[in-house]
Amino acid sequence: MNSTTLARSIVRQLIEGGISDFVLSPGSRNAPLSIALHEAEVAGLIDLHVRIDERGAAFFALGLSKASKKYVAVICTSGTAAANYHPAALEAYHSANKVLFITADRPAYLRRTGANQTTLQVGILEPVATIDISSAISLLDLLSTGPVHLNIQFDEPLLSDDQTDWLAGLSPEISEATLESAGANFYPKARGIVIVGHDRAGIDAEAIASYASAIGWPLIAEDPLSFPSCILHAPLFLTDSELRASLAPEQLIVIGRVTLSRSVTALIKECSDVVVIDPRAFTIDTARSSSQLLPALPVPHPCPSTNWLTRWQEISQQVRSVVALDWSEQSAIVSITSAIPEGAALFIGSSRPVRDIEAFAHPRSGIHTFANRGLAGIDGNISTALGIAEKFERSYAILGDVTFLHDISALANQGEANLTIFIIDNNGGGIFNTLPQAGVKGFEKIFATPHNLNLERVIGGFGARVVKVKNAADLLHEIAHQGEGLNFVVVEVPNRESNAAGLKKITQSLVNAVRIGSNLA
After folding, report:
1. In sequence order, which residues have a C-beta less than 8 Å from that of residue 481 and are 6 or more positions away?
2. Eight-state DSSP code of residue 433
3. How far apart are CA 74 and CA 158, in angstroms?
4. Which residue intervals of the chain bear CATH 3.40.50.970?
5. pLDDT tens digit string along 348-402?
6. Could you give the count of Cα atoms lying within 13 Å of 451 in the half-sphere of its Cβ?
7. Strand locations in 345-448 (E)
8. Which residues pair with 461 in a beta bridge?
9. 87-109 pLDDT per residue, tens
């Protein structure tokens, strides 16, 4: 089968299977696919997004997939281009996101011969499985619930004079998979807690909140922006081991992966009866241990009535008045997350921002939150946010300065989505100032890595609108007056050392307040 016919067969099948977003990076070996995709776009059948950097293109596709909950295809040429997909492929695998990675390849007979731009692309995106294709096959049965790698062998000639109307009669089939209830019976004990990881194992936030309410347990969430009734500041006051012991549950339900707070992780570790609800425990995290593993929410059976929930709710109200934040990374994030309008999307960068939101953000609802928590890397965060923004009328992102710089090439393809990116600028990797390695010899060079850059000038060089704010009033003004397209707000905060010291002070004041309220002082 010639390369043009093979490419058309693949594109047609994917469109028929309901894939409407395709992300393309230019290249020679993938020319048959590029031409077929352009023809499909002209026919009004797909949205074709072109991104010059394969690494950023893959994260952009990841963002589109997260926002749409559908398969998104990303296509590149052979050689190092394919290898650039690996970071996003790992993130998609561990998050079970629907990304179809398509790499063009030389024919198999050229492998290991020294042929130009030819390497062993089969398995290059492991643990994402590769399907090596040299002729037309049925593709749709290969797409299930997570990422897939199609490696397609294209032989010369790559171009064709064939003017056949290969798109005639094409009708996309739009289908959306839904997560069904496991229907399992689970009988909760009197003193239990529902702990929800940031990605919720793909389960709807309202369903989780309703379930926790039905069984009468308090809920602790890594993403308080999706759970208005969750316990406020739990990661902070649970740092006290004596207080944690006094609040120890008989049973825990953990939904998804819990990765942000050492104190919440300790609470889970110290409980002898932990139920995990996460479909990935059956396919990806197969070594995960628990008292019981479930792929979805079980049938809700109310637990015996006690004052357990009331006690946690009283603590949540107690700590609400204790935290008084001066201008800092934390106060900036509280302002942003409180002021974002209903219906908007928010992408939260890895490292410090996602932890500050967990510990300090005021519980609310009405926004769509996203983060790359599969492997929690700082790579590709701008690209992911840009992909998510394509699916919403208004989107926001909160990134640290190092995370921003790590994916700065994404600004070469800004797109037209309405996205405001807040950059928390503390001149380096602020999270390391809160970790055990803070203060070791050589800390600034090997951990903090200050960039000493004027981020306004860097961003301005790409033609994007950018402003700097240094206080809460100016920050709130910018949130309320963001224009169309891509906008940046550089949030200048106090230095990393003072921020780390402030975190310790706030945590201790919270612990003291809860200890007094719990008669442990």
Report:
1. none
2. G
3. 19
4. 3-153, 329-505
5. 999 899 999 999 999 999 999 999 999 999 999 999 999 999 999 999 999 999 9
6. 17
7. 345-348, 368-370, 395-400, 419-425
8. none
9. 999 999 999 999 999 999 999 99
Class of domain 329-505: alpha beta
- Two tokens, residue 427: 């001149």
CA-angle at 190, arms to 187 and 194, nearest 5°: 75
CA dihedral 187, 191, 194, 195 (to 10 degrees): -140
Strands 368-370 and 148-153: unpaired
Contact 296, 180 (CB under 8 A): yes
In 123-178, DSSP assigns E strands to 130-133, 148-153
CATH topology of domain 192-321: Rossmann fold (3.40.50)
Break the chain down into helix, strand, coil percent, rounded to 5: 40, 15, 45
How many other C-beta atoms lie within 10 A of the C-beta of residue 299? Answer: 13
Which pLDDT tens digit goes with each residue over 24-58? Answer: 999 999 999 999 999 999 999 999 999 999 999 99
pLDDT at 150 over 60: yes
What are the CA-CA distances from residue 361 to residues 196, 353, 402, 471 (Å)?
15, 10, 22, 18
Looking at domain 3-153, its CATH superfamily turns out to be: Thiamin diphosphate (ThDP)-binding fold, Pyr/PP domains (3.40.50.970)
Residue where the block lists tokens 């309202």: 206
Peptide bond into 127 cis (omega under 30): yes
Tell me where in the chain the CATH 3.40.50.1220 domain(s) lie. 192-321
What pLDDT, on the 0 to 100 scale, is given for residue 183? Answer: 63
**CA dist., res. 155 & res. 379, Å (int):** 34
264: amino acid identity, one letter: V
pTM above 0.90, yes or no: yes
The dihedral region occupied by 221, where left means phi > 0, alpha psi between -120 and 50, and beta the remainder, is: beta
Q: Within 13 Å, how many C-alpha atoms sit on residue 161's CB side?
A: 0
| Residue 299 contacts residue 184 (beta carbons within 8 Å) | yes
What average pLDDT does this structure show over 123-130? Answer: 96
